[in-house]
Amino acid sequence: PGQDPHGWRVPVDCVRANELCAAEPSCSSRYRTLRQCLAGRDRNTMLANKECQAALEVLQESPLYDCRCKRGMKKELQCLQIYWSIHLGLTEGEEFYEASPYEPVTSRLSDIFRLASIFSGMDPATNSKSNHCLDAAKACNLNDNCKRLRSGYISTCSKEISATEHCSRRKCHKALRQFFDRVPSEYTYRLLFCSCKDQACAERRRQTIVPSCSYEDKEKPNCLDLRNTCRTDHLCRSRLADFHTNCQASFQFLTSCPGDNYQACLGSYAGLIGFDMTPNYVDASTTSITISPWCSCKGSGNMEEECEKFLQDFTENPCLRNAIQAFGNGTDVNLSPKNPSPPVTLPPKTEKSPALPDDINDSNTMYDMSIITTCTSVQEHGPKLNKSKEQSLCYSETQLTTDIMPDQKTFVDQKAGGSRHRAGRILPVVPILLLLAL
């Protein structure tokens, strides 16, 4: 957008835009009018008022109209409150999709892959036989900040309040938001989106957010009711709008993701964790990835079609599925001519993978009874543990890996495959040569 004499049309964050508006008497008075118009009125009533209409028209030319917020900024909630105070007046407020109030993501997954290799020394594409989710937990434990915040949410989400109250869902969500907001994505993404070849690994991935507290509940609410609840909270509403903006399936792009940006979609997905709309893996399947919030479309009445469409943006979303698989495989689309190196998926190695050092322990010393510790102990030492409620939260990895999954039988040597194809092209020539010889 161009600039007016005041320089207002330069895009700024909403906190700064509010300051600019407050310094201009015309903008300031119109903004106060709009807020009064929105208080306790539906949109149609508001638009029928000429004074409210005039306020909207003036504010569309103010810095507030173009303002956006930065994820994790110091005054994020204040910024979002200002954003919605304007945009709920400009839109229906109950649209199926709402525009994201956040600045667009310009980084790519390739940046995270590079950082992950620098920080942890582990490349998820180099060893197809290892438990990538266990490796991700160990990499997190090598970083003090990641280990501290991960231990914190595991402890909070596993703490029983009373005989009837399994945990404090509110405190669990807050601890999870702190983890995903404050820990670099090269660690959090590896915990959330690690690739799995066996069910034990997939169950560890599903348990990443301690779903018994942060995700599951006694009953599943209707998805549209859950969406309406989310939209009453500025933070939750913003994260949901951001998810729809960056993960809405768009078939005009190669990856089905808007702008072919996997990073933006995965970041928006992670941003939903710790709210009522928290998504998670629905099972420990290794052959398919199905993501869903904890809700269903039961009892939708005449809104069932809209409910199913909303739910399918999670459960049947090719953009989200492709983004998760791309990260787990260590690949990313590269559409920029400045970076000519194409992503390469390495074939599985036949030799045994080197054992992880003995001194890398997945246990959190502060919280010995954490879920992740229990899962790791079962894998590393076998199921010879005292029975506990934590142990029921994860499968025995040694037991589960004895059941060979279908996708474990499909390893293909790419070089060998290429040789077979070449041989197939040569064989039809042999009878012709024999006829010529005769």
Automatic annotation (TrEMBL):
Region: Disordered, residue numbers: 330-357
Lineage top rank: taxon: Eukaryota
Cellular location(s): Cell membrane
InterPro entries: GDNF/GAS1 (IPR016017), GDNF_alpha (IPR037193), GDNF_rcpt (IPR003438), GDNF_rcpt_a2 (IPR003504), Glial_neurotroph_fac_rcpt_a1/2 (IPR017372)
Disulfide bonds: C21-C27, C133-C194, C140-C146, C157-C172, C167-C213, C196-C201, C223-C295, C230-C236, C247-C265, C257-C319, C297-C307
Topology versus the membrane: Lipid-anchor; GPI-anchor
Record keywords, A-Z: Cell membrane, Disulfide bond, Glycoprotein, GPI-anchor, Lipoprotein, Membrane, Receptor, Signal
GO annotation terms (biological process): nervous system development
Any single Gene Ontology cellular-component annotation: external side of plasma membrane
All residue ranges annotated as the GDNF/GAS1 domain in the record: 14-91, 133-213, 223-319
Gene Ontology molecular functions: glial cell-derived neurotrophic factor receptor activity
Pfam families, sorted: GDNF
Glycosylation sites: N329, N386
Gene3D superfamilies xref list: GDNF binding domain
Family, as annotated: Belongs to the GDNFR family.
Name assigned to this protein: GDNF family receptor alpha-2
Organismal lineage: Eukaryota, Metazoa, Chordata, Craniata, Vertebrata
Gene coding for it: Gfra2
